[in-house]
Amino acid sequence: MTDPAEFRSGFVCFVGRPNTGKSTLTNALVGSKVAITSNRPQTTRHTIRGIVHRDDFQIVLVDTPGLHRPRTLLGQRLNDLVKDTYSEVDVIGLCVPADEKIGPGDRWIYEQIRAVAPRTTLIAIVTKTDKVSRDRVAEQLLAVSELVGPDTEIVPVSATSGAQLDVLVDVLVAQLPPGPAFYPDGELTDEPEEVLMAELIREAALEGVRDELPHSLAVVIEDVEPRPDRDDLIDVHAILYVERDSQKGIVIGKGGARLREVGTVARTQIEKLLGTKVYLDLRVKIAKNWQRDPKQLGRLGF
Hints:
The protein has 302 residues and is α/β, with parallel strands linked by helices.
């Protein structure tokens, strides 16, 4: 056991274009599913913190929505949330995937980080290294170095295969200040369970549907209560809000097949989260143009 005087703790935030592997990386480091992953941009809506515990350090991972050029009020609020986070963390990890060339989006995000949090330590993380050859990884490291400058540390990792994750942890810990743990040992996230449940339902609903849905889907947990006559069952009632009739049809599917599938997938994940059997009741409602309406945004938790 390390001398307690050397214990380090702090906050780390992964940023990058949508779909650069930030949530997958968070989950891999925490060792449990706390951030929802989906192959669609804009799937993370809440600042979910994953917590990495060891004997001599604690890293609190702040998982923010991807920073993007906003087109709606929701987009603007998500961006403001990200920028507030940047200036409050100890380390920012800029994620750039190994399998895509660096583009204007990456440059824009790097400039935003430096404008909003010029003094925060930045490290660059080349993600998804399992998807390309070693030569391609080497090329990408060079390209990222040109983007962030020679003084920024760059770590290539694969969250899927686990390659270099230990190296990344060492690099992150080295940048954290000495100090006590923020959370008790064994806690993986400080998000309320209802937020995580809503996210798991949203993730299941987004899987495999066409691109028109992601921004338009919000999930609200109406009610969570133990079944009166059973101590091994919890009833969870949730509403999936979409903006248009056509989207409602997509979520429900032919004869309700799609919604049942979503329910099955989400229920399995929620049972893991709560450690008990769950009866999950899902309903779909329309909230017209909620992304542009401040009142509705507030009601849906944004």
